[in-house]
Design a protein that fits this description.
It contains twelve helices and twelve strands. By secondary structure, the protein is α/β, with parallel strands linked by helices. It has a single domain, classed as 3-Layer(aba) Sandwich (Rossmann fold). A hairpin with a 6-residue loop joins strand 1 and strand 2. Helix 7 crosses helix 9. It is globular and about 50 Å long.
Length: about 350
């Protein structure tokens, strides 16, 4: 056990060293230019929009807490695609990656401050422009080990670095139940109209309620866990009406410090995803899928897409910045480009 844990620690630290080396390799002028542009873009949220921080929101198990950010839709947005009365219950949920945190937390960390333009607050405004007629929820990981590694323990079993151990659906437990409870409690605390009920069947889902799930980098482990739970959850009458409200899932350059399962490749599991009717989107960059030190990531991504297509799904896929060298800069920029 100890040798295995030592190897796991060494592997995670190797990846961290790779990340920090890439950070150092970027010239200060490149970083200043990127950060200035990204900050300028991310900070230009509509003055009518108000970003709300909801601290220690309980999940399905009351002691499992997550902090949330909520950005309400811009109801005066001229580019909104639907009438106002049709878009009051559409929601986007975002799961962030390593390093990312609340702005004030990142400002205190040497590695964090140089990526502060990708703080959770900034990302909320980016998503607000991408989905102007929806409520934006940013869920902060329950733990940030060494202020760097995002650990989504409340959604999926993970080690200290956030590498997941995916499990099948367990009734009255797991990622779907935790997400539903977070949204229900969050909506009540924010006094949203027609909130999602904490539990129940189809009659507990408010009219017009829909969900879009977005995972970036480490945050994709939550989406992966949901895919592993999907078969059992769809057969559970207490949670299946909630799952039917998920319209789209976006994987943005998924990655974690484990040695496998960066992308779901289990055919039986992916068959359930293909049959669910959820629209699947996979956006990647060379930083993750073209890294020779982690060649399995690219192979798994290809298998994920190919298997879904074999089962009749039509996942959208795009390799961003394919003509540019792999970089953390472009890894983060996929949040703006997807």
């Amino acid at each position: 056990m100890l040798p295995a844990r030592a190897a796991e620690l060494g592997f995670a630290l190797l990846l961290l060293a790779k990340t920090m080396t890439s950070v150092a390799a970027a010239t200060s002028s490149e970083r200043r230019g990127l950060h200035a542009a990204a900050s300028r873009d991310a900070c230009t949220g509509s003055p009518r929009q108000r970003l709300e921080k909801l601290v220690a929101v309980p999940g399905h198990v009351p002691r499992r807490l997550n902090d949330l950010l909520l950005l309400r839709p811009d109801t005066n947005n001229k580019n909104a695609t639907e009438p106002k009365d049709k878009r009051n219950n559409r929601h986007v949920v975002f799961f962030h990656g390593d390093i990312q945190n609340f702005q004030e937390e990142m400002a205190l960390q040497p590695e964090g401050v140089q990526w502060i333009c990708w703080s959770l607050e900034q990302v909320a405004f980016i998503l607000g422009r991408r989905f102007p007629d929806r409520y934006i929820w940013v869920i902060r990981a329950s733990r940030m080990y060494l202020h760097k590694f995002s650990c989504y323990h409340n959604f999926v079993e993970s080690n200290m670095f956030g590498a997941p151990e995916h499990l099948p659906y367990i009734p009255d437990s797991g990622a779907f139940h935790h997400l539903r409870a977070l949204l229900s409690h969050g909506m009540e605390r924010a006094n949203l109209p027609n909130p999602l009920q904490l539990q129940g069947g189809a009659d507990s889902i408010p009219s017009g309620f829909s969900l879009t799930l977005v995972g970036f980098s480490k945050g994709c482990v939550v989406l992966n866990q949901m895919v592993y739970e999907l078969g059992g959850a769809r057969a559970d009458p207490q949670i299946s009406p909630f799952i039917k409200c998920i319209s789209s899932m976006y994987w943005l350059d998924g990655g974690h410090p484990g040695g496998s399962e960066t992308w779901v490749t289990d055919k039986l599991v992916l068959k359930e995803l293909a049959a669910s009717g959820v629209s699947v989107h996979a956006h990647v960059t060379p930083y993750e899928v073209c890294d020779p030190m982690r060649a399995w990531v690219g192979r798994e991504h290809g298998q994920f897409i190919k298997t879904l297509e074999e089962f009749g799904a039509c996942p959208s896929k795009k390799l961003h910045f394919e003509d540019e060298p792999p970089s953390i800069d472009n890894h983060f920029r996929v949040i703006q480009e997807f």
